[in-house]
Amino acid sequence: MIVLDVESSGLLPHKHSIISLGAIDLDEPENQFYEECRIWDGAEFEKEALAINGFTEEEITNAEKQSEADLIAAFVAWATDRPADRTFAAQNPSFDLEFVQAACSRAGVDSPFSKRTLDTHTLCWLHMTRAGMRPPLGNHHSAINLDFALRYCGLPEEPKPHNALTGALCHAEVVSRIAYNRKLLPDFDSYPIPWMNS
User: Fold this and answer.
1) Cβ–Cβ contacts within 10 Å for residue 188, how many?
2) How far apart are CA 179 and CA 42, in angstroms?
3) How far apart are CA 77 and CA 27, in angstroms?
4) Which of 30, 43, 151, 177 has the greatest number of C-beta atoms within 10 Å?
5) What is the pLDDT of residues 129-174, one digit of tens each?
6) 26 and 101 fall within a common domain
7) Which of 51, 84, 117 is a domain's end point?
8) DSSP tag of 63
């Protein structure tokens, strides 16, 4: 399984660009991918998106950075060198997958990725309900975001602004703790799994 996080210049894959992509092989967590790129020619950006991921306009338009096409080609090469399971996992994997698919299409790269994904929101919701807990609501829908899932798993919130690699590492630790009841990454080893100690 490939746990990933995409940072983008906005929310719409047809008009915004990937600006960084982080991924981790859940079966071999030392195998990680992180690269940044400039936005594709003609791509738009939103200041709100840059405030979340910490990039500046100068950084995302820097001609010295690799293109989105080069980044996506490198990611596909990394991902296809992994074991057979290329299923994506993330907090909101449809967002990440749509950006990866759009970048592949723009670059003329065949995408080896399926629409079947695993999301940390559902894993956390299911784990809570099976334990007899009521998942939080906000505006009449689930309020389980990544920071909530991290706290639920006994972990600190993701640093802000965050980058795609820290996002992928946080998602991977949540998946490992909820799905397998085991710690995954050395950075999180000092944090106990709450339900394993009760």
Assistant:
1) 21
2) 41
3) 17
4) 177
5) 999 999 999 999 999 999 999 999 999 999 888 889 999 999 999 9
6) yes
7) 117
8) T
Percent of the chain with pLDDT over 70: 98
Count of structural domains within the chain:
2
Q: For residue 192, give both structure tokens.
A: 């106990």
Residues 138, 162: one domain? yes
What is the token pair recorded at 104?
């592949």
CA angle at residue 89 from 83 to 91, to 5 degrees?
Answer: 160
Q: Which residues pair with 36 in a beta bridge?
A: 20
Which residue in this structure is represented by tokens 């746990």? 3
For the record, the structure tokens of 176 come out as: 């490992």
Domain residue limits at 187: 120-196
Whether residues 101 and 13 share a domain: the answer is yes
pLDDT averaged over the chain? 94
Mean pLDDT for 51-59 is 92
> Rounded CA gap, 103 and 173, in Å?
27
Residues 58 and 128 placed together within one structural domain of the fold: no
Sign for the CA dihedral angle at 55, 61, 66, 70 comes to positive
Q: Would you state the pLDDT for residue 198?
A: 55
Which DSSP letter does residue 161 get? Answer: S
Helices (H) and strands (E) in the chain, counts: 7, 7
